[in-house]
Amino acid sequence: MRKDDEEPNIMNFFKATHYSNDKGWTTSEAQAKHEKMVELQSTPAEEGAEPKNIDDIMDEVLGTRPGYILGLAYGPKPKKINSSADTIELKKSLKNKEDELNNYKSNFELIQTQLEAMRSALLAVGIQVPSLQFSASNDTTISTSTESQPTQGLD
To answer: From the record, what ranges are coiled-coil (predicted)?
Structure first.
C-alpha cells in the first residue's frame, strides 16, 4: 500500500480497484488504460514543457465528466452556482456603476458650465477663446469663434 507520508496516487487507486493478485485485471480495457497511464507518466516531457501531472494523465486516458471520474465512480462534486444570489450581486454592482456614472456626468456638466463662464469672462476682456462643443459620442470639437468682441484697452 502507501506510506503515511506519501500523497495518495489516483493511478494506484485505479489499479487497486481494477486488479487483484488472485484474479488479475477486471477487464482488458482497464489493463490497457492503466498501461497507457504508466506510459504517459514515464514519458519524459519535451524540452521547455512541464511534465504532465497525474490528474492530467487520468483526464487524458479516462476522459472527464463533471462530478464523475471514469473508472473511479463519483469524485468531487463541482461547485453549484447559486444563480439567484449571483444575479442579485450583479444587479447591485450594476446599480453602483450606474450611480458612479451619473456622478461623473454631473461633475462633467458642472465643469462645462464653469468652462463656459470662464470663456465668457475672457471674451469680455477681449481675449479670443476657441469654443468647445462636446457631443454624445465623446468627441470634442474645437471651433474657433469668429465673433468679434469689442476690445477694451487696458490702462
So the answer is: 87-114
Give the C-alpha separation, 58 to 71, whole Å.
10
The tens digit of pLDDT for each residue in 125-147 reads 998 888 777 776 655 555 544 44
State the pLDDT confidence band at 68, using cuts at 50, 70 and 90: low
Round to whole Å and give the CA distance between 141 and 109. Answer: 16
Name the amino acid, one letter, at 3: K
Cell of 4: 503515511
In this predicted model, which residue has the larger pLDDT, 140 or 46?
Answer: 46
**How far is it, in rounded angstroms, from Cα 33 to Cα 71?**
10
Contact present, 131 and 119 (Cβ < 8 Å)? yes
Angle at 3 between CA 5 and CA 55, to 5 degrees: 75
Confidence of residue 44 (pLDDT cuts 50, 70, 90): confident
User: Any idea which residue has 476657441 for its cell?
Assistant: 130
Instruction: Answer yes or no: are the C-beta atoms of 150 and 126 closer than 8 Å.
Output: yes
Q: Which amino acid is at 22?
A: D
- Between the alpha carbon of residue 150 and those of residues 118, 125, 143, 147, the distances in Å are 17, 8, 20, 10
